Amino acid sequence: MKFFFILVGFSFLQSCSQPSLYQSKHYVFGTIVDISIYGEKEEKAEEAAKVVLEEFTRLHNSLHAWKKSDLTNLNESISKNKPYRKASSELIEIIKNARELEVTSNHLFNPAIGELINYWGFHQDEFTPIHPNESKIKSLVERSPSLSQLHISGTTIKSSNPYVKIDLGGYAKGYALDRASKIIREHHIKNALINIGGNIMAIGQHGSKPWRVGIQDPRGAQAIAKVDLPDGWAIGTSGDYQRYFINDGKRYCHLINPLTGYPVEGIYSVTVLIEPSQSAGTLSDVLSKPLFISKKENRRDMAKKLGIYHYLIIEEKHISMTKTMADKIQFLNPLTQKNNQIEITL
């Protein structure tokens, strides 16, 4: 089987020689988007992919965290301690859902920490290494921004904390997957795979077999494992190997612990498999974050609290996963298991 890599966490492991496989690649959400449709006439597949891409572009323009968007307009109103009166019903529902997920994750998933993310330099396309200022970081953490401080009435949103700055970077791609799945099914397409920078949703299957994706090696250029993705399942990863900078030999990734204000260290990647639901895409994006940020001794309890039954965690010379995940994945290099301590959790 041939490998086709999109270096964002996952690889699409299918042969592209078959004429009935339509693929369309674009750059949205700051990453590569791959729309694959199997078993349809090219005109039908192309039309559906076009509508999906238009939806991705709309969401990108609406939810961007630092370029002019509906979200930046809301953040500007919050910073001025003014109510934002023009919130769309979609933005309100996203905020309400993200707020519930923040609470459930013990605030480890916290989209209100945009000021911290900006301080670390991740509100830009290219990252400039910084020397962290301990007192500045402490000050940002002590402001305690949370989506729970937002008050919604009709189309108006206001905040009791002017230091709330919303960043939906850990939510938007997954939400876009759910929107894409809806569009694809509305176009009566039975088999498709949507990949947004490593967050992937499967619809139907590839011929007589499930869609197969590869899990990126966080310290290599190849896939470390492969997994079949049945209809309606989604997969997502959080890793320290895409958005990061190195300063004085130390790696600082974009995944920041809201409780400390610092990027998480010592963990390479977390991959979660999410079973079919109306929000499987969203959950594939969100749920890997609190698991990534959790202390090692708390991960199992956090996974249980979040309803994560299939996860894979890669650290230096250590790989841990649930038994259900171990039953589903296959490591591609025998040396992976030989060179790493493998831990299977219940």
UniProtKB/TrEMBL annotation:
SUPFAM superfamilies the record matches: ApbE-like
Subcellular location: Cell inner membrane
Bilayer topology annotation: Lipid-anchor
Family: Belongs to the ApbE family.
Short name of one Pfam family: ApbE
Alphabetized InterPro entries for the sequence: ApbE, ApbE-like_sf
Gene3D superfamilies in alphabetical order: ApbE-like domains
Role according to the record: Flavin transferase that catalyzes the transfer of the FMN moiety of FAD and its covalent binding to the hydroxyl group of a threonine residue in a target flavoprotein.
Keyword presence, 4Fe-4S: no
Protein name, entry field: FAD:protein FMN transferase
PANTHER family hit by this protein: FAD:PROTEIN FMN TRANSFERASE, THIAMINE BIOSYNTHESIS LIPOPROTEIN APBE
Keyword Transferase belongs to the record: yes
Record key words, sorted: Cell inner membrane, Cell membrane, FAD, Flavoprotein, Lipoprotein, Magnesium, Membrane, Metal-binding, Transferase
A molecular function GO annotation: transferase activity
Enzyme Commission number(s) of this protein: 2.7.1.180
UniProt catalytic activity: L-threonyl-[protein] + FAD = FMN-L-threonyl-[protein] + AMP + H(+)
Cofactor entry: Mg(2+)
